[in-house]
């Protein structure tokens, strides 16, 4: 009998090979040939799934975004849980605090740089930015709904500030992990979130 191939699993395998090449060798070396070699596929097999490098990069970045969203959506708040702890753990889903999330952030930063020179990636970049922004808006909104947040907060400005803090911390940690350690990242986020609360 011919072997049955799960095409979605194969695309995920290719996307993960793309992440590996980007993290180890940089996005400029994420060629179709190199990714196929890393995925242990022929170039022809890879092109069966992705007709261009941009299409492959888009799928790889969407997979990063989808995995973050899945983790966030699987979280449930219980009444005996500290609201501040609950929302901070949610924000940590998008920060490089472990190997998996570090890879996701490194890949995302490399992709973001590629967007500057490849306009075909703009739509996905904007889509993921909007998802991230909405997720951080939900963080502030949850604190407000639970009557944990200070009165009179400007929701839009606070979301902008939190988004900038999260992006900045991720970049500082990836570029200078010896100076801006994971512990500093954790304490900085908790300090900021506490400043929003009564």
UniProtKB/TrEMBL annotation:
DNA-binding region: 31-50
Gene3D superfamilies the record matches: Tetracycline Repressor, domain 2 (1.10.357.10)
InterPro entries in alphabetical order: BetI_C (IPR039538), DNA-bd_HTH_TetR-type_CS (IPR023772), Homeodomain-like_sf (IPR009057), HTH_TetR (IPR001647), Tet_transcr_reg_TetR-rel_C_sf (IPR036271)
Domain HTH tetR-type: from-to ranges: 8-68
Keyword presence, Hydrolase: no
Keyword field: DNA-binding, Repressor, Transcription, Transcription regulation
One Pfam family here: TetR_N
Record protein name field: TetR/AcrR family transcriptional regulator
Organism whose genome encodes this protein: Oceanobacillus kapialis
Species classification: Bacteria, Bacillati, Bacillota, Bacilli, Bacillales
């Amino acid at each position: 009998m011919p072997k049955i191939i799960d095409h979605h699993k194969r695309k995920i395998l290719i996307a993960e090979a793309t992440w590996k090449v980007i993290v180890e060798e940089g996005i400029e070396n994420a060629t179709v040939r190199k990714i196929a070699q890393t995925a242990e596929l022929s170039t022809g097999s890879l092109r069966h799934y992705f007709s261009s490098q941009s299409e492959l990069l888009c799928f790889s970045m969407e997979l990063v975004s989808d995995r973050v969203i899945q983790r966030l959506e699987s979280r449930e708040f219980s009444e005996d849980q500290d609201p501040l702890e609950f929302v901070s753990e949610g924000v940590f889903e998008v920060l490089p605090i472990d190997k998996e999330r570090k890879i996701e952030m490194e890949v995302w930063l490399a992709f973001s740089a590629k967007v500057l020179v490849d306009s075909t990636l703009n739509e996905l970049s904007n889509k993921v930015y909007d998802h991230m922004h909405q997720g951080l808006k939900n963080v502030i909104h949850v604190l407000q709904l639970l009557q944990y947040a200070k009165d009179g907060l400007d929701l839009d400005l606070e979301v902008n500030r939190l988004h900038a803090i999260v992006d900045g911390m991720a970049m500082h940690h990836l570029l200078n992990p010896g100076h801006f350690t994971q512990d500093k990242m954790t304490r900085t986020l908790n300090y900021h979130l506490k400043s929003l609360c009564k």
